[in-house]
Design goal:
By secondary structure, this protein is α/β, with parallel strands linked by helices. The chain is built from eleven helices and eleven strands. The chain starts with 16 loop residues before the first strand and ends in a 6-residue tail after the last helix.
């Protein structure tokens, strides 16, 4: 058990050792990490020194940080963030065996954190783009958390200002804050403003009223709306790229309602790219036009 369980130690004190698997903190970490869902407090779990460091560097609230006995070696790396006087973060410690029982990875590195992701409104999603036009990625029915995380990492790397995860028809979008998505995003999901869960028709109406041009990543042409190549798009204007389900893509009605269809020209015999690979190609062109890449 942990001494004074209702009053976890702050980073300025030596943490007591949690020795019971029934400890409430371990139960919360187990749900957030191994269960892959937010805990009752709304916190998500991040695991490993790199992701924990990204979480501590972000503007997200940190509910607690947990070290295993062997994971204590990472404390020096995180000390600058844990010992900030203006932030009192509960620091917990447990055995290697108990840490392994709550971890999501096969070979845990002995450090994890409970993080409360920022809740972003539509207006807040557009607010960070002060020095450049908004560049958004909208994930509509991307079901593989690895794809979700990779797309967010790619978008952030090439200058995206925000992201939206939305359902599309019968296809929901995997949570960007699941353990697998967070690992695939390399922490980008904690830095990039993300609006989660809006209905796609409402989102498209909001984007239109905000003069954000919507581009539907498409696998098909339409006689009345031919698909444009990536370099035929003006990526310097406010843009939202819609990325659909891995197998089905975007519903036809969504593509028709977008301002333009966009398609990556490919050699014969190849019909499509993986959703994350396609997003990388498109955002590279966006970054090239926005002069964020060296020529």
């Amino acid at each position: 058990m942990l001494s004074r369980p209702n009053s976890p130690r702050s980073s300025s004190a030596d943490p007591a050792m949690i020795s019971s698997r029934d400890n409430r903190w371990l139960k919360e970490f187990r749900i957030a990490l191994r269960g892959g869902i937010p805990s009752e407090s709304g916190a998500i779990g991040v695991e490993g020194p790199r992701l924990v460091e990204e979480a501590l560097r972000s503007t997200s609230a940190i509910r607690a940080v947990l070290f295993s006995e062997s994971g204590e070696r990472h404390r020096t790396r995180l000390a600058a963030y844990l010992n900030r006087p203006e932030v009192k973060i509960p620091i917990l410690c447990t055995t290697d065996r108990l840490f392994e029982s709550i971890a999501d990875t096969e070979h845990p590195q002995g450090v994890a954190a409970l993080v409360e992701p920022r809740k972003i409104s539509f207006d807040e999603l557009l607010a960070p783009a002060k020095s450049a036009a908004p560049l958004l990625v909208v994930l509509a029915g991307v079901q593989d958390p690895g794809n979700v995380g990779t797309i967010l990492r790619t978008a952030a790397a090439f200058g995206a200002t925000g992201a939206v995860t939305s359902a599309s028809g019968q296809s929901g979008t995997a949570s960007p804050f699941s353990p697998k998505a967070l690992r695939a995003s390399a922490g980008a999901a904690l830095r990039l403003p993300i609006l989660t869960g809006p209905a796609l028709p409402i989102l498209l109406a909001q984007l239109a009223s905000s003069n954000i041009r919507t581009l539907a990543s498409s696998l098909r042409d339409s006689p009345d709306q031919p698909a444009l190549a990536p370099w035929e798009i003006n990526w310097c204007e406010p843009v939202a790229l819609l990325v659909g389900n891995e197998g089905a893509g975007l519903p036809e009605e969504v593509e028709r309602s977008a301002d333009a269809r966009i398609r990556i020209p490919m050699s014969g015999g190849i019909e499509s790219l993986n959703a994350a690979a396609a997003a990388a190609v498109l955002f590279y062109e966006a970054a090239r036009q926005r002069n964020t890449l060296p020529i």
